[in-house]
Write a structure and sequence with these properties.
heterodimer, A: 435 residues, alpha/beta, Ubiquitin-like (UB roll), Rossmann fold, 3 domains, six-stranded mixed beta sheet, 13 helices, 17 strands, globular, B: 501 residues, alpha+beta, four-stranded antiparallel beta sheet, two-stranded antiparallel ribbon, elongated
């Protein structure tokens, strides 16, 4: 908070108490799993198995082969029965590889464990690629790419902030898998030749900080950095600014930092220890629209309807179903979509009417925008389709974190207005390139 | 089972615009409550505060209700989303206590209509509606004051008549003690616009509203801070102490405007950097109006002027804020430096006008206005009977003393009261030329301030050189003092009669 700039962040009620201490349920009884043939936005995926093939937990079944290489693995043992195309969590129809579960959960590790202390940096980066380790914060960005191009990195910043409301998956897994986390972090430091690592955790979780501190005892190059309980503290730029007081233009590498999610580090640590890729995930199923909010350990590819049924079903006849947290998670109009290797939450909220009034130009959206944009102005110029002004207002720097809509006292869909503005700018820019 | 689609985010803070406006309303009512307390306990006009508030709010709400009805909106829903009462309360609180109720009502209607509805209603208005209402009031109804309310000079008008500078320490203490000292200027038990006087109450309410995030802290802090610094500079140039900037800040609605009017989000910039520039600009204009303009209170007009250039500031600052922050820093710095230079100049050029304010000026004598002339043989002079009570010689002239009935005695029945007496004139005549040389009162027996208008050198001149033989001569009367004039002309006729015998 300064005189000329708003706080660029805001505390919001996280409702973490719904799921942060109850039992982690295990969902094992899905008859079929549907491995989504997608990574990030790319569907350029080659399928490596045929209909009728027998697969095991960990069998490599497909691979993304374009700008980056990301293998996909079976999450159950059983038989490949074909492909099905239906709506994915990114709100587009996507092909899924259907595997019939034989409920034996026979496991065959697809690669050998690797001792990070002995392996070279190049070996570790190759291992990370082949293990299909992707960013588990929600975007699914291939982790090895970050390290392939890492230069002059002084710190690996491990993001354990988990600022989305309702989600406690990272919180829980950090409590459970401290050992794997440390191995993953150490490997990451080696890959980036970084002398130290910092784990950012919300100061409002003193008990978790204590647990993690115990895990990193004896590793003087790893430390914990408590950050305030605000949104979007978990966004790369916000957390880097909080820890290092530095802003960067495009990538955190510019200020000598690589940021990785804590679950990504744990996945890498697990892969190095056991030779197993990400085949199951802890997913937080929470919100007032689900009867018994829980964290659920679930194989990749299970339909969300089964996940919700495991948590007691829906609490209302009319719900908002979000793939992810309520801030950034997209709203889906059916519950047949599946869990991906980088899913971390399903949020179900009871649909309530929104009483929208006129914008009173209070400027809270501009005060709190983590990108320091001016959402109110963007919405004004979007209405008049003013391309030049929208460009000047840097509309493409919006990460759609949802802060502006959240904070709006008039309950206007500010973020959606910015999305329209972004589409407008992108279409016009593309048209200009064509000319 | 229904899965509703809404664009993300699906999470909203509980805070609503309605709640914000309700808290603002409560804050305003707290200020109004203080005013009621002051006017009920220290003066006789407590009820007027309530009447003005009621009329102002009523007409604001009515105007919007009528508008909603004719634009085919659901009236109640419209009012719930439009908050006209806020304008109503603010308008009442910035009016003087002697404002007439009809002027208040008209100002309220104009405030809502021209300040808000013509722009498209809540959220669209360019100007602060209450400010618009106050401007209408100031320009159209400033002299239409309720006759039964005695208003005394406010601290800011007093300071204005003193030329914005007090160097004499006894004058300073008498000026301050007139309003109960600086402490009382802070607490607020002194005459002024209804809700503007208590710095203490406004500061408390403002702090709560900032804490509750109803208003943004930047504009009030920057605005009041700038006014303090700039006036401290002016004071320093004249060797005045810390009391001077405090006097400027506590009086004339600076704090009220800072907390309740400049912070109106609809009419100020949305981005923090632009808000700082807005606050500095408002401070400069307020003080320019105070020091160089004719109006003692610059706050309302500075708000309206800043409202007007707000779109410009906003457009100037558009962009990604971590990039435009430099622009706002440079703009703010340039403004502050320019203002410091400007107010150094203002400070050096101020001259006290102490004498004027010390001794209230005598009401200026209006010029003599003549009415219908009367012929000396007119029968209308007949009731003004009289007689010559004495003659004396003065050189070659003769002085006649004439005792004649005036306005009060002409009806012979005492119906005009007992305090009337004869008018007695000394009329000097040139017996050779039969002309009148001079005329003067020996005794005035008519109504003071009315008939006494004839007691005027300029009127005497009308008679000088008059031909005392021609009864057809016409003689002017004094407008508004016809009876006394007739009495005087009758006296002249009596002398003519005597001369003719």
């Amino acid at each position: 908070m300064s005189l000329l700039l708003g706080p660029m962040k805001q505390h919001l009620d996280g409702h973490k108490g719904l799921t942060d201490h109850n039992e982690i349920l295990a969902l094992k009884d899905a008859k079929r799993v549907y491995i989504p043939l997608i990574n990030g936005q790319s569907t350029n995926v080659e399928v490596l198995v045929k209909e009728g093939d027998r697969v095991y937990v960990g069998t490599k079944v497909a691979q993304r082969n374009d700008s980056s290489i990301v293998p996909l693995f079976s999450s159950v043992s059983g038989k490949v029965v074909g492909q099905e195309t239906f709506l994915h969590a990114i709100l587009k129809p996507v092909a899924h590889l259907v595997i019939e579960n034989d409920f034996k959960y026979e496991t065959k590790a697809p690669f050998k464990p690797l001792d990070y202390t002995k392996a070279s940096e190049a070996e570790l980066i190759d291992f990370t690629m082949n293990a299909g380790i992707v960013g588990c914060g929600g975007a699914g960005f291939p982790t090895y790419v970050k390290y392939k191009f890492a230069k002059d990195v002084h710190t690996i910043l491990i993001n354990g902030v988990e600022c989305e409301p309702y989600i406690t998956a990272d919180y829980r897994i950090m409590n459970e898998k401290g050992k794997e986390m440390v191995i993953g972090i150490k490997a990451m430091m080696k890959m980036a030749k970084a002398p130290k690592a910092i784990i950012a955790i919300k100061a409002s979780h003193p008990e978790l900080i204590a647990t993690v501190k115990k895990e990193i005892e004896g590793h003087s190059d790893i430390s914990v950095f408590p950050v305030p309980d605000v949104y979007p503290m978990g966004w790369e730029r916000t957390v880097v600014f909080q820890v290092f007081k530095k802003r960067y233009d495009k990538l955190p590498g510019e200020v000598g930092v690589v940021v990785n999610n804590v679950t990504t580090a744990i996945a890498l640590g697990t892969a190095l220890e056991t030779g197993m890729p990400i085949t199951e995930k802890i997913v937080t199923v929470s919100g007032d629209g689900v009867k018994e909010p829980h964290n659920v350990m679930v194989p990749v590819g299970v339909r969300v309807s089964e996940l919700v049924a495991k948590c007691g079903g829906y609490a209302s006849e009319d719900v908002l179903l979000c793939a992810g947290g309520p801030m950034m998670g997209k709203t889906l109009t059916n519950d047949q979509f599946v869990i991906t290797p980088y899913s971390n939450a399903i949020t179900v909220l009871i649909t309530r009417p929104i009483d929208k009034v006129a914008c009173l130009r209070c400027g809270r959206c501009s005060d709190n925008c983590p990108s320091s944009l001016q959402p109110v102005r963007i919405n004004q110029f979007e209405e008049t389709k003013n391309y030049e002004m929208l460009k000047r207002l840097a509309v493409n720097d919006c990460i759609e974190c949802g802060m502006c809509s959240y904070i709006c006292p008039s309950k206007i869909d500010v973020t959606e207005g910015i999305r329209r503005a972004k589409r407008l700018v992108q279409t016009r820019a593309a048209a200009e390139v064509k000319k | 089972m229904k899965f509703t689609y809404r664009p993300s985010p699906n999470y909203r803070q509980p805070r609503k615009t309605r709640g914000i406006m309700m808290e603002l309303t409560i804050g305003l009512l707290a200020v109004a409550a203080f005013s009621c307390f002051y006017y009920f306990t220290k003066t006789d006009y407590g009820l007027r505060v309530i009447e003005l508030l009621f009329v102002s709010v009523l007409f604001c709400v009515l105007t919007e209700a009528v508008w909603a009805y004719f634009t085919k909106e659901k009236v109640l829903e419209y009012l719930k989303h439009s908050f006209p009462w806020v304008t109503g309360i603010i308008l009442a609180l910035i009016l003087p206590i002697n404002a007439t109720l009809y002027a208040t009502a008209i100002s309220a209607v104009l405030a809502i209509f021209f300040g808000k509805l013509v722009f498209g209603g809540f959220g669209q208005n360019v100007f602060n509606p209450a400010g618009v209402g106050r401007a209408f009031f100031m320009t159209s109804f400033a002299t239409s004051v309720a006759a039964d309310v005695v208003s005394s000079p406010t601290p800011i008008t007093t300071m204005s008549t003193l030329g914005w500078v007090i160097k004499d320490s006894s004058l300073l203490s008498s000026t301050l003690s007139q309003f109960g000292g600086l402490t009382n200027l802070f607490v607020g038990f002194y005459p002024g616009s209804i809700g503007e006087t208590s710095a203490l109450v406004i500061l408390i309410v403002g702090a709560v509203l900032i804490w509750r995030k109803v208003i943004d802290w930047r504009i009030p802090v920057v605005y009041v801070g700038c006014i303090f610094i700039f006036t401290a500079l002016v004071g320093a140039m004249q060797g005045m102490g810390l009391w001077y900037p405090l006097y400027h800040v506590f009086t004339g609605g600076v704090l009220f405007g800072a907390v309740f009017m400049l912070t109106d989000p609809v009419t100020n910039p949305t981005a923090p950097g632009a808000r700082v520039v807005f606050g500095i600009g408002a401070a400069i204009i307020t003080l320019l109006i105070r020091f160089l303009g004719n109006l003692p209170e610059g706050v309302v007009f500075s708000i309206l002027i800043m409202n007007m250039i707000n779109p410009m500031i906003e457009a100037w600052m558009d962009g990604k804020q971590i990039h435009t922050i430099k622009k706002s820093m440079v703009t703010s710095s340039i403004l502050v430096v320019l203002a410091l230079a400007l107010f150094t100049g203002v400070g050096l050029s101020l001259k006290p006008k102490a004498a004027e304010a010390e001794v209230p000026e005598e009401p200026e004598e209006p010029a003599l206005v003549f009415g219908q002339p009367i012929a000396l043989n007119s029968t209308s002079l007949d009731p003004y009977k009289g007689e010559i009570t004495g003659t004396s010689e003065s050189g070659s002239y003769v002085v006649y003393t004439v005792k004649v009935k005036g306005y009060g005695l002409v009806d012979d029945d005492g119906s005009h009261g007992l305090s009337y007496d004869y008018n007695i004139f000394d009329i000097t005549v040139d017996p050779a030329a039969k002309t009148l040389v001079s005329i003067a009162y020996q005794q005035f027996g008519d109504t003071k301030n009315i008939g006494s208008k004839t007691e005027n050198e300029d009127y005497y001149k009308v008679f000088e050189g008059l031909d005392l033989t021609n009864y057809d001569n016409m003689v002017d009367t004094v407008s508004g003092a016809t009876c006394t004039s007739k009495s005087m002309i009758s006296a002249v006729r009596i002398v003519m009669d005597a001369l003719g015998e």
